[in-house]
Write a structure and sequence with these properties.
homodimer; alpha/beta; 6-phosphogluconate dehydrogenase C-terminal fold; 2 domains; 6-stranded parallel beta sheet; 47% helix; disordered C terminus; membrane (chains A, B); tyrosine biosynthesis (chains A, B); EC 1.3.1.12 (chains A, B); prephenate dehydrogenase (chains A, B)
């Protein structure tokens, strides 16, 4: 059984997340009308050729007019200006949400521009890949993944429930928390891991004693996992670090302290300290697999190469 | 066409690498006889029940007697004592190699014990998964991956060529370099990435403000990739850090310097510095995919979940 949850959904921005939402709305028949708007004409044309929506708009106000749900699917840094632009066109009673990876700064950026007669429910689907653009979206992106909603204290409960229903209809599990706690959690599970991945890839690229071609050839020994994360969208990630500054700096300080302590253990040959940590971290991996948040397959189940093998005739 | 490259291969240690070599020797008919020896009776029994070899030995000297190839597939820290143990039993003219992730320390550990009439050719297959034990091995592990050989200067060229042939017959590509250069390359492409993965997982586990269950639930946002690496064998990795100390400390210093500079860019809101690095690192990912060292599929081609979807009747 399917049911239309919103009559008109306006998606502002149509990258990986926006296009995955569009595909979900379409395939699961969750929206009466899907209006897509984005800044660049070229991107809008690509979305249209992929048949992601029902109407396509260069004019944001036109897209949101009459929408009972508006979803900003843009880098965090673009939220303030966009909200100012669409605010006058928002229908009374509309729900407005976003998918940004930082919530405190998004609330500060959007709230001042919003009229009192709309429901603002910030959101963040914990799902993604290193790919971007309207071609990157797919139906299963949110399946079995968490979406965090961070409604403000005075927010209409019914609006939160409607948005939660939509995310669950797209396969997600939903958790509600405060914007500040969200930003702290994401700093450690996402933002600092991305930062150190970007950093190690940069360090490797700058070496004089090891060539870039050696780094690439021998990357299967661990490094290549980091390069996937370090291939994520630069604009999106610049904005995340600039807008979740306090929490990132706090977690980064702890990370560096811990790393200095490991460095000392290596310098002084303290094998027990290393072994103890390495045993503890292995258990956390097992918990993640047990919680269904990753595959148990070796190497993430990367496809094994099946070339023509000598001796297999 | 198949051809037996060695009459008797002795595998000392039968974890992920040892068992993958055994499976290759067997399936591709590269050895006349596969002798397997390991310290723990339980592991030896598991290897036997998996039918990995032709003979199984608790006595290392018995395993290597008459072997024209001996491969140490044990943690780096075990190489010295093992070599002392088997040295008297080595056949004249035998090739002895290893698969350790550090080469300088392995040479220092093994060379003093070896008789002059054997050929010592240290080696390191750049292949692995986070899994360990005799059950973890598989035929394709070395396919399209590099194996580095680090022969000493006075080494017999014919022995190096025979070992290179074997690795190529198992699907690997072979590169020859000095032990010191190997250790520098691996420090940046493998050892430091593993250390920072272990470290971030430890930092996350120690937080008071974010619960462990939150870390696990929301791990799909980046963190889970690090946990895979941080689930690697603790003994093996302890030994790597203790034995490749100088190169690891050197690379770690550079990493920390670079990270401090990124931290400063975040603190002072230098978005251009962040954007520039994030753009540069994306290009390196593309080179790794282009070199065939990783899949281009999003999320490493992790299998997408296909649950029963509402609205798909």
């Amino acid at each position: 059984m399917t049911s239309v949850l919103f009559q008109r959904v306006a998606l502002i921005g149509i990258g990986l997340i926006g296009s995955s939402i569009a595909i979900n709305l379409r395939e699961r028949k969750l929206a009466g009308h899907i209006a897509i708007a984005t800044r660049r004409k070229d991107t809008l044309d690509r979305a249209q050729s992929l048949d992601l929506g029902d109407s396509y708009h260069e004019d944001f106000a036109e897209a949101v007019a009459g929408a009972d749900l508006v979803v900003l699917c843009v880098p965090v840094g673009a939220c303030a200006a966009l909200t100012a632009l669409i605010a006058p066109a928002l229908a009374p009673g509309a729900i407005i949400t976003d998918v940004g990876s930082v919530k405190g700064a998004v609330v500060s950026a959007m709230l001042p521009h919003l009229p009192a007669n709309v429901h603002f429910v910030p959101g963040h689907p914990i799902a993604g890949t290193e790919q971007s653009g309207p071609e990157a979206g797919f139906l299963e992106l949110f399946e079995n993944r968490w979406t965090i909603l961070t409604p403000l204290e005075n927010c209409d409960k019914a609006a939160v429930a409607r948005l939660q229903n939509l995310w669950e209809a797209m396969g997600a599990m939903v958790e509600v928390m405060s914007p500040d706690h969200h930003d702290l959690v994401l700093a450690i599970v996402s933002h600092v891991p991305h930062l150190i991945a970007y950093n190690i890839v940069g360090t490797a690229a700058d070496l004089e004693t090891v060539t870039q071609s050696e780094v690439i050839k021998f990357s299967a020994s661990g490094f290549r996992d980091f390069t996937r994360i370090a291939a994520s969208d630069p604009t999106m990630w610049r904005d995340i670090f600039l807008t979740n500054r306090e929490a990132v700096l706090e977690m980064l300080t702890r990370f560096s302290e811990d790393l200095a302590s490991l460095q000392r253990a290596i310098r002084w040959g303290d094998g027990d300290a290393l072994f103890d940590l390495f045993t503890r971290t292995r258990a956390i991996r097992r918990s993640i697999v047990a919680a269904g948040q990753d595959t148990a397959d070796a190497n993430f189940g990367r496809l094994r190469q099946h070339k023509d093998l000598p001796g297999q005739q």
